[in-house]
Amino acid sequence: MPSKPLMVFPVQAPVQQGAFDLYTTIIEAVAASGETLQDGDVLAVSSKYTAISEGRVVALADVVVTSEAEAIAERYQMNPKIAQLVIGEADHVFGGIPGFLLTYKDGILSPNAGLDRSNIPNGFAVLFPERPYESAAKIRQVLRERLGVKLGIILTDSWLMPGRLGTSGVALATAGFKPIQDERGKNDLFGNPMQVTQRGIADSICVCAQMVMGERDEATPLAIVRNTGVQMSDVELSAADVAIDWRMCLYVESLTKGLLEHPLDVGEHTEAMM
To answer: Given 3.30.70.270, 3.40.190.10, 3.90.1150.200, 3.30.1330.100, which CATH number is that of 7-237?
Structure first.
């Protein structure tokens, strides 16, 4: 646990629409903010900002639509070009609702494989970084070489919590510290050994960062998170360090293979028994 108050510093940076030097931009933006990066800090970087720096911006006019995408677009009332991009990017497509497909991409259940059309000119879409964990590791490496600081890096994104309104932060990729803190085998307040709890440290830090980064016109794709208490590490990370196979996901399996033949509305069932 951190011994000092958790602190989050927003860092504004220039709006970008095409490939650019992300590392120099980060260094200059932090300097312009009046802050400095310190050993042990976690730097949250917008995954979209990272993707744009890598040229992962697609003009919809250039997308060639297949018959498969046409069929999916018709079924889910989508723009066929968006449907084409989604099925081309997703690792797995489960289904959808009007306008959206539920996909598995880079270890995250996400709408439309992370494809984003906000904060980019009309007629374009931004994809996920091609290799998010490599991108995060490279940011950490370059900042360490140029600034001499030992940082953690998170590529931030936002997602919809099942059954809840509103988006919340999620770590698309992490570098420099373990994203999961395993509590299994440790005792709770009453001495009972924890059985299943593993804390999503990277996701929790991401939520804190996104409170100051915003989602709209804030132009704040960076945030410095200080006093998290995480231990810096040079261990190479991948989606396997944080994600589970979607076939083992409580939400996915409960609503597919594990679905009750006659789902219960427990509230009504309980009232009927009284």
So the answer is: 3.30.1330.100
